[in-house]
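Good day; I would like, with your permission, to put a structural problem before you. What I wish to show you is a protein chain and, alongside it, a tokenised description of its three-dimensional fold. I would ask you to consider whether the tokens describe a fold that such a sequence might reasonably adopt. You will find the record immediately after this paragraph:
***
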Amino acid sequence: MMMEIAQQALKEAEKYTQLAEIFMEKEKVLQLDIQRDHLDFAKEEETMGLGIRVILDGKMGFSYTSNPDEISQAVERAVFNSKTNEKDDNFGLADPSDYPQIKGTYDDKFNSLELEEPLQFAQTMIDTVKEEKCQPTSGGFSAAMAQTLILNSKGVECSDVSTGFAGYIAVNAEKGGEKSTAYDSVSSCFFDIDPQKLAESVCKLAMDSVGGKSVETRDMDIVLDYHSATGLLGTFISALNADNVQRGRSILADKVGQQVVNPQLSIYDDGTREGGLNSSRCDGEGTASQKTALIENGVLNGFIYDIYNARKAKVSSTGNGMRAGFSETPTVGVSNIVLEFADEISLSELDDAILVPDVLGAHTANPISGDFSVEANNAFIIENGEITGPVKKAMLSGNIFQVLKQSQALESEIKQFGAFITPKILVNDLRIVGT
């Protein structure tokens, strides 16, 4: 059905231009929300729609519809919109390609998922939190399946299907009249996430965080756990976005070929990674997904591109023309960002450090300079290779570009949170501010 609708739309668009593109998306989502200790609501939604891009005389026009009966009107709107835009020779469409086969991104279990299973998942989290002597404050579960199809007048035909499952829980803990909070989440392309394990780990974090000691303001070794690392890394990755580079918003713009991070660190954008939460056969423009070496052994290789910014730079797209949905046009975006360290250090080797599981305020970091000042959440003191107790309150301040010059991997599991696939990261001489 999707193919028939997309072909009809492309045929309609080609009445006006030889450069037309159809992006079609069908998504089914099941979502449960938890408020305090009860299930707040459950909803199931299914959406389908298509976006139409046309290029006429070097001018781009876009329109979208969720009604297959209004394809001709949507095409006419796209054509009209193109005539009101400015000409830009950098507009272009993807060429046909051999698309990779991606493994580990689709779980057929989604098609047989009954509402009872997500309800049980959520209830297990609630019950486990209570058993662990904590109080749930919010949480949820979601399951989604997305099907995409891209056709264009140059012969591109790329389809993909993927699933995603996620659970999250936030809790309060109280001990001896003092309180603490904690939050965690888990995501997978498969319905293999464990609600009991998630709830137990969150409650342990909250209980272990109650009370704590004050710390003095100084530079010291900081271990960034997964949430804190990914929160801060977003600012760094924005400097590798070709759109930011070309707009003068990247401090790395003129650093290609230079060492910009620890020589032990390599960073890749890998849209083909097996089991990657953002893996797909192609990007939102129909360019084949690939593994792009952004930084190798500390040296900057290049940036991520969609077609438009690649044409401006006279290079090829890296398969990073991403869409938020059928109602949006493509923009430069990441797939799976992989951090690979050549070596790692054990927790037992740390004599005087702070473990920071999460941070508040990462979004306030300066996107150009990389300077940040964030609150350390659920932080712990590390002494003589052991976690000895919680930190009362503290801030972290520094510069993300400097952080990655002073970082190494802590011996830990590699996990994906959002776009980032990373171990826990040890940063030397980062400023912690006691409060």
Notes: Residues 212-435 form one domain.
